Structure formats: structure tokens, C-alpha cells
């Protein structure tokens, strides 16, 4: 199965929360994008592309790890572009989270994606499939070259530092924990 096929499968199988109808509309829009763009997984697709991200969570510590993105200069969850070697969309999200957090042993929260988000970036529209990654006990982060900073924030502080999309991702993650 190609990554394109896997992404379509993930999106077809994912059930958006019943109380969030806009999430199902995004799911259908992402599927339409993939159906119309054989290159819709890749950064080279100028009409936008599927990306994968993961909010790194330490449930025992009641905190999340955010990265101060080098280009966007905002506190965000880890994530970004899919790569040809990624076996699946969840694998892409986990790879990005591991690379950007420096934490080994992350595991994705079961149940598939937590939510979807569509946002404009300097390269194109990102059709972001968002997961949550659980940090192992005693995890130590290490800043990557893609970040200006990397920091743990208590759940309650996230609205003070991050944009609404990160806040919504945290809210949905907490509903599933």
C-alpha cells in the first residue's frame, strides 16, 4: 500500500467526533484532495498537501511538549511533511514527533487521528492529520534544527502560548486520554 493509499484509508476509516461536524467536512475535503491529486502527499503539490503531526503529551505530568517553530515562530505541536520512506500516515506523525522532540519511545494514542486541521503555511496549504503521542516516563527532550526552542507546558498554559488549533488539539487529546 502506498502512503497515498494509506492516507486515504486512514481518512475513510476515521470517525470524526459527532459533536464536531466541521471535522467530518475536513475529512471529506482531505479525501477529495487526495482523489484529485496523485501527488497530494508531497510538499511539491502546490495546491496543498497532507501533513502529519503529533502533540507530545506527558499525562502523568499534566503537560505537553511544544516546539517554537523556526520558520513560523509560533509554539506548535511537532509534525510536518510526509516522506517517501514513511510506511504510513501514523508512522509519519511518529517519525516527526521523534525527530522534533528528541524523545525515543513515543507511542501514538490509540484510536487513530485526534483531529484534522487545514492551515496556510509559507509553502502551501497543509491538510494536517493530527495525532497525540504519549511520552514515556522520564522522557528527556532535545531540540532539533527545525526549532528555535522546545518546552514543556502545563495543560492550563497552552492557551496562553499557542494558537487556537493547538488548543483544540489539546482539548480533543484530553477527551481521549
TrEMBL record:
Residues 47-175 form the Nudix hydrolase domain. It comes from the Bacteria. CDD domains: NUDIX_Hydrolase. The keyword Hydrolase applies. Keywords: Hydrolase. GO terms for molecular function: hydrolase activity. This is NUDIX hydrolase. It comes from Streptantibioticus silvisoli.
Amino acid at each position: 500500500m502506498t502512503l497515498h493509499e494509506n492516507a486515504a484509508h486512514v481518512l475513510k476509516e476515521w470517525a470524526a467526533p459527532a459533536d464536531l461536524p466541521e471535522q467530518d467536512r475536513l475529512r471529506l475535503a482531505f479525501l477529495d484532495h487526495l482523489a484529485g491529486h496523485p501527488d497530494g502527499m508531497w510538499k511539491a503539490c502546490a495546491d496543498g498537501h497532507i501533513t502529519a503531526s503529533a502533540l507530545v503529551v506527558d499525562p502523568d505530568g499534566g503537560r505537553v511538549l511544544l516546539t517554537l517553530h523556526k520558520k513560523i515562530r509560533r509554539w506548535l505541536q511537532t509534525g510536518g511533511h510526509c516522506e517517501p520512506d514513511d510506511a504510513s500516515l501514523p508512522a509519519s506523525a511518529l517519525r516527526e514527533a521523534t525527530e522534533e522532540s528528541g524523545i525515543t519511545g513515543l507511542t501514538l494514542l490509540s484510536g487513530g487521528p485526534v483531529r484534522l486541521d487545514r492551515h496556510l503555511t509559507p509553502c502551501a496549504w497543509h491538510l494536517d492529520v493530527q495525532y497525540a503521542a504519549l511520552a514515556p516516563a522520564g522522557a528527556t527532550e532535545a531540540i532539533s534544527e527545525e526549532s528555535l526552542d522546545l518546552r514543556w507546558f502545563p495543560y492550563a498554559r497552552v492557551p496562553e502560548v499557542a494558537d487556537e488549533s493547538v488548543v483544540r488539539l489539546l482539548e480533543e487529546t484530553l477527551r481521549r486520554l
